[in-house]
């Protein structure tokens, strides 16, 4: 079918629906609901058979839903209504939840129901749940709704009873540091991640708090900062403490939009002297303390996991991960698994940190070289097999970090964006070596030019990944452990390692790829008029585009392979 997606932004759920519908042979243009643009005119121009709104913050105009069947994806179970459904569920500690696909009518969330899907909510951040459990349920419901619609025989279910929740504003999100225990503080922080954050006061100023992890060893006066760790701030609760990775200063009227930064960087000179606690690479059993990089060994396999907010990797995060990688690759294991336990793998360089730097061009250069160093270390590991375990979404340099490994194992719900051009970049991370080697020069050119998201199944068909692990987000780490243990004991593994060592000894220098890529990146970074700087600024400050990007709203020509090789 010709299915039009309408959305407030091309976010993770919209990307997943887009990729999965395209996998099934549908034509799937996208139109964004933007200020000053007529959504009605855009829909009529496409003349779709079906309209789907995976993430839409505004009502669908009457002239649209009266002319075309319009399905709205609501992140709540049957009978739930309102703009903050998932926020309320997390803040109140709900364990069972769901997603509903309903037909658009005059009243928001009140139309007939075409499909529902249940899911569970682990005690995790909203953005993590949204990209994983909610996205899994949403996709299941969307595919069922499309199938039912296509049959022409299904009668949707009328809603009889419903509960409409109000918008969850800051008055209900506010943390009472004197009265709220750690569990309550964490629920409030998680329900506001990654937007809108929890508004709070720190050192006489107002800040939005983003993210939260428990700490059960440190203690102090409730609300007081206790320590820092790798850019995060630890604050005391009445019965423990929490780590807050990121802060965003409240916007002053008339000033540019603010954006999230690592808490220590955001506070800058406002932060009084606090102890900097090292991040334990080898976690102690039974302790709950947060660290963004951890290593475990099990059944002769090393597991180096990392989890950075939003999937972005700053210069310092890349260097710390490289230090950890160099330390653990010296361990006597035959298989090393690199990746997270769930959610993002990596999205490449940290655009927010770059934007906040005194010299964004210099920081861009430092960041790309830091991630290149990490990728090179993975590519040149010759005494073991390296597996990239991709539990969730990955983009740009994060995809190329995964491709540096010998094998890429991807959770079935992940979405990959193996391209750079939407940020005005040529790209580095040795992609001109690894991507064509995996998928061929022509497919590499198409992926880079089209700039479309790729589903896990689509990535497997292309050769971009080696294995798709079909499981829920919570089960991915366990599945990877089993598969990696089998790989470590497989009779062929030792021979593969020896073959790999011989092949690397006979392969030409990698510096050729890096130097060629970085020469183009350097020209972009050093040119103040390059589109990268404007695109980065707009992305970081969440500025709306003036129109739907052409590559989403209509077909585009595919270049010859040599255009980007």
UniProtKB/TrEMBL annotation:
Q: Which InterPro entries match?
A: ClpP/crotonase-like_dom_sf, Enoyl-CoA_hydra/iso, Formyl_trans_C, Formyl_transf_N, Formyl_transf_N_sf, Formyl_transferase-like_C_sf, HoxX-like, NiFe-hyd_mat_HypX/HoxX
Region: Disordered; residue ranges are 544-565
Q: Which residues form the Formyl transferase C-terminal domain?
A: 170-249
| A Pfam family this chain is assigned to | Formyl_trans_N
Matches recorded under CDD domains? crotonase-like, FMT_C_HypX, FMT_core_HypX_N
State the source organism's domain of life: Bacteria
Query: Where is the Formyl transferase N-terminal domain positioned along the sequence?
Result: 39-142
Q: Which named protein is this?
A: Hydrogenase maturation protein
Q: Which organism is it from?
A: Streptomyces siamensis
Traced from the root, the source organism's taxonomic lineage reads:
Bacteria, Bacillati, Actinomycetota, Actinomycetes, Kitasatosporales
């Amino acid at each position: 079918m010709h299915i039009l997606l309408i959305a407030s932004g091309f976010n993770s759920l919209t990307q997943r629906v887009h990729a999965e519908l395209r996998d099934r042979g549908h034509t799937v243009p996208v139109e964004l609901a933007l200020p000053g643009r007529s959504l009605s005119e855009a829909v009529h121009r496409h003349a779709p058979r079906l309209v789907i709104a995976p993430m839409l913050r505004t009502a669908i105009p009457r002239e649209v839903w009266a002319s075309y069947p319009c399905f709205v994806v609501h992140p709540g179970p049957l009978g739930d209504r309102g703009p903050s459904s998932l926020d309320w569920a997390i803040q109140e500690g709900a364990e069972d939840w769901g997603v509903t696909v309903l037909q658009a009518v005059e009243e928001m969330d009140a139309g007939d129901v075409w499909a529902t899907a249940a899911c569970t909510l682990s005690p995790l951040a909203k953005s993590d749940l949204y990209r994983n459990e909610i996205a899994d349920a949403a996709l299941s419901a969307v595919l069922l709704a499309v199938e039912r619609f296509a049959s022409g025989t299904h009668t949707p279910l009328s809603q009889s009873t419903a509960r409409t929740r109000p918008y969850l504003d800051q008055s209900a999100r506010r943390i009472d540091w004197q009265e709220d225990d750690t569990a309550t503080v964490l629920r409030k922080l998680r329900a506001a991640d990654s937007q809108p954050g929890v508004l709070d006061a720190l050192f006489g100023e107002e800040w939005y708090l983003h993210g939260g992890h428990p700490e059960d060893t440190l203690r102090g006066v409730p609300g007081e900062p206790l320590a820092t760790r790798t850019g995060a701030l630890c604050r005391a609760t009445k019965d423990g403490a929490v780590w807050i990775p990121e802060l965003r200063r409240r916007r002053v009227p008339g000033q540019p939009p603010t954006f999230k930064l690592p808490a220590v960087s955001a506070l800058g000179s406002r932060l009084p002297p606090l102890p900097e606690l090292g991040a334990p690479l080898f976690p102690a059993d039974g302790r709950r303390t947060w660290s963004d990089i951890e290593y475990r060994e099990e059944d002769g396999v090393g597991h180096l996991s990392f989890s950075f907010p939003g999937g972005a990797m700053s210069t310092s995060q890349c260097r710390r991960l490289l230090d950890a990688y160099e330390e653990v690759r010296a361990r006597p294991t035959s298989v090393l698994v690199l990746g997270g336990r769930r959610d993002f793998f990596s999205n490449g360089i940290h655009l927010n940190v770059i934007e906040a730097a005194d010299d964004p061009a210099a920081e861009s250069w430092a960041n790309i070289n830091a991630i290149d160093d990490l990728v090179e270390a993975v590519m040149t590991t010759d005494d073991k097999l390296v597996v990239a375990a991709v539990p969730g979404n990955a983009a740009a340099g994060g995809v190329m970090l995964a491709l540096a490994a010998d094998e890429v194992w991807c959770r079935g719900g992940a979405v990959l964006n193996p391209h750079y051009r939407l940020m005005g970049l040529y790209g580095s991370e040795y992609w001109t070596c690894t991507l064509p080697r995996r998928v061929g020069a022509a497919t590499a050119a198409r992926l880079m030019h089209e700039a479309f998201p790729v589903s896990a199944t689509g990535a497997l068909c292309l050769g971009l990944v080696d294995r798709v692990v079909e499981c829920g987000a919570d089960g991915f780490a366990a599945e990877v452990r089993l598969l990696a243990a089998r790989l470590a004991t497989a009779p062929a593994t030792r021979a593969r390692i020896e073959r790999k060592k011989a092949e690397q000894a006979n392969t030409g220098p990698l510096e050729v790829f890096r130097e060629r890529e970085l020469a183009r990146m350097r020209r972009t970074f050093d040119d103040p008029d390059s589109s990268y700087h404007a695109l980065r600024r707009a992305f970081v400050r969440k500025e709306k585009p003036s129109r739907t990007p052409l590559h989403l709203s209509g077909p585009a020509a595919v270049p010859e392979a040599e255009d980007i090789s």
